[in-house]
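Structure (tokenized):
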């Protein structure tokens, strides 16, 4: 059996991960819905937080304690949050900032869709490489692993959005990025969604088993529980694609559904959503 100390560490890690994920996402959505005149201050604060997060990650990588695992995890999510804030405010997106042409299909649509956010994706990839380099061979690599889970989950979600999902929550997109929603196809889910969910659940299960190994140290149990929680949440976000308004309901306090974003488009079209069509709610 696992020790009472390890059990407490696991419970703390799971609650910490869920709370940070939920509140951090909501905080970014809330900041993005403020007047655009506030974006400069928000981004400046985001840069300061990202610098502090990177410093915390560097400081914690040589320590194997519950606190160091939590610190590294929080640092990774703070760095990710900085990237998301830069994206949602429109600072770092891609060279294309227009809606999908109505006659575009297949690979051409994929290329145009990638052009709407390629700068952001490259920034995330470069940050992931940096964290892997910093954590390579260190006793505490929770930060790098957490960021990689977020990155893989994001790429998987983007591919599912491209290939088709039943529900897409445009309500979480700010007005100045609504053109990106026109590259999403509403349709029955592709087989890739099932593959994504199965892969995420498998990784989460493996981390859960690692956390529950008898004799595991509090650090090992905490690290595994954090990664289990994050991968399980990423898998849950994929399942939200099957449920109308699921993610919008979670963050309604930060991003209220109003006006045009509250219109639902039925999942029956093989074509991407067009600029003149109502946007789906999720």
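Design, position by position:
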């Amino acid at each position: 059996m696992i020790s009472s100390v390890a059990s407490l560490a696991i419970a703390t890690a799971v609650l910490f991960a869920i709370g940070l994920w939920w509140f951090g996402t909501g905080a970014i959505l809330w900041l993005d819905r403020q007047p655009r005149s506030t974006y400069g201050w928000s981004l400046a604060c985001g840069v300061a937080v990202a610098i502090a997060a990177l410093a915390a990650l560097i400081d914690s990588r040589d320590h194997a304690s519950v606190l160091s695992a939590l610190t590294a995890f929080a640092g990774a999510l703070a760095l990710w949050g900085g990237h998301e804030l830069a994206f949602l405010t429109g600072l770092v997106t891609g060279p294309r900032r227009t809606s999908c042409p109505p006659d575009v299909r297949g690979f051409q649509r994929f290329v145009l869709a990638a052009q709407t956010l390629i700068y952001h994706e490259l920034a995330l990839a470069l940050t992931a490489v940096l964290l892997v380099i910093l954590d390579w061979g260190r006793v505490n690599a929770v930060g790098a692993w957490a960021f990689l889970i977020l990155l893989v989950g994001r790429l998987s979600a983007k591919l599912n959005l491209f290939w088709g999902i039943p529900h897409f929550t445009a309500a979480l997109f700010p007005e100045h990025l609504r053109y990106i929603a026109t590259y999403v196809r509403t349709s029955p889910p592709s087989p890739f969604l099932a593959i994504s969910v199965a892969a995420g659940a498998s990784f989460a299960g493996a981390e859960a088993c690692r956390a529950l190994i008898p004799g595991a140290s509090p650090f090992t149990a905490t690290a595994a529980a954090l990664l289990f929680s994050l991968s399980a949440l990423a898998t849950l976000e994929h399942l939200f694609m099957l449920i109308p308004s699921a993610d919008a309901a979670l963050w309604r306090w930060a991003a209220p559904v109003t006006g045009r974003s509250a219109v639902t488009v039925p999942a029956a079209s093989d074509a991407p959503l067009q600029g003149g069509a109502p946007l789906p709610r999720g």
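Reviewer-requested clarification: The chain is about 60% helix and 0% strand. The radius of gyration is 19 Å.
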